[in-house]
Automatic annotation (TrEMBL):
Cited InterPro entries: Ub_conjugating_enzyme (IPR050113), UBC (IPR000608), UBQ-conjugating_AS (IPR023313), UBQ-conjugating_enzyme/RWD (IPR016135)
Pfam family, any one: UQ_con
Protein name, entry field: UBC core domain-containing protein
Active site residues of this protein: 73 (glycyl thioester intermediate)
Top-level taxon of origin: Eukaryota
Domain UBC core: residue ranges: 1-142
Segments passing through the bilayer: none
Source organism of the structure: Iphiclides podalirius (scarce swallowtail)
Family: Belongs to the ubiquitin-conjugating enzyme family.
Keywords from the named record: ATP-binding, Nucleotide-binding, Transferase, Ubl conjugation pathway
Length: 144
């Protein structure tokens, strides 16, 4: 799987005997979250590949598509999606990894936010949004 990862991503299996659970770390190399390190737990259910894996963000961050509880708004993680980009049996784990990575760049969506407050701050004052993003990154570094 490591061969197909973006350069900003790493995968870690906490138990090498349990291949259906792993931690994905995304370290953006551009954009608002540059300098951050964001961990996601990925659990592949028995229903895979008929159903998407369960993904949760473990790092508290300020993001319009990830709330402070770690829930993620990403179409391909939904069994059904109104935009037709939801999960399909033809999708693979690498699609999930690339999708999560893209939440920090080109899939960033301020128009359909999960964290409405973050999206509103971005629209109102991008400078304040950037400051708040960086505050969360600094807090996360302190908890490592």
């Amino acid at each position: 799987m490591n061969e197909n990862l973006p350069t900003t991503c790493t995968v870690h299996f906490e138990d090498p005997n349990v291949l259906n659970e792993f931690i994905l770390t995304v370290t953006p190399d551009e954009g608002y979250w540059l300098g951050g390190k964001f961990k996601f737990s990925v659990f592949v259910t028995e229903d895979y590949n008929m159903a998407p894996p369960k993904v949760k963000c473990l790092t508290k961050l300020w993001h319009p598509n990830i709330n402070e509880d770690g829930d993620i708004c990403l179409s391909l993680l939904r069994q059904t999606s109104i935009d037709e980009h939801g999960w399909a049996p033809t999708r693979r784990l690498k699609d999930v990894v690339w999708g999560l990575n893209s939440l920090f760049t080109d899939l960033l969506n301020f128009d359909d936010p999960l964290n409405i407050e973050a999206a509103e701050l971005y629209k109102k004052n991008r400078n304040e949004f950037q400051i708040k993003v960086q505050e969360y990154i600094v807090m996360a570094r302190g908890k490592r």
